[in-house]
Amino acid sequence: MVRNSNQTAKAPLNENITIMSVVRGIIVSYAVTIPVFILFALILTNTDFPEKFISTAVVITTIISVLTAGTTSTRGLKSKGWLNGSVVGFVYMLILYLLSSLIFNNFTIDKYVITMTVIGVLTGAIGGILGINIKKSGHKHLKSKAIS
């Protein structure tokens, strides 16, 4: 079997999930989540915010955080943004689950936990896809400006 000599050992590194890209995504996601949750807690404490909207606010915050994390984590990757974003979404949800389980002393996996995990993984995948495509679009736009 003949191996293509144009392939280099470095090429796969730009396509695979790296620990640093996952860590970067998780840091960004919690940099969004924590201030929003603090603001939301202040609103709940100081106003008559209806309790029926609390879970909706948590889901929206999670979606925004994981979407941002998935987009951020794919910088520097050439492909498989969906996979990288999915991993970031899963790790985000795992950390959130572990922290909330420790705080409330309840490690039950129920329908809500599974739903939130699926939302986190799918949103991370979408963020990863967007991150790769936004980056590529930005480079094309910059190249066309440099040529003209």
How does this structure look, described?
The protein has 148 residues and is mostly helical. It has one domain. Helix content is 74%, strand content 0%. The chain has helices spanning 19-46, 54-73, 81-104, 111-147. Helix 1 packs antiparallel against helix 2 (54-73), helix 1 packs across helix 3 and helix 2 packs across helix 4 (111-147). It starts with 18 loop residues before the first helix and ends with a helix.
Give the domain tally.
1
Content of β-strand: under 5%
Helical segment count: 4
Intertermini distance: 46 Å
Number of E-type strands? 0
Which key features would you list for this structure?
single chain, about 150 residues, mainly alpha, 4 helices, about 75% helix, globular, disordered N terminus
Q: Can you lay out the helices and strands and say which pair or pack?
A:
Blueprint: H1 19-46, H2 54-73, H3 81-104, H4 111-147
Brief summary:
The protein is 74% helix and 0% strand. With 148 residues, it is mostly helical. The longest helix has 37 residues, at 111-147.
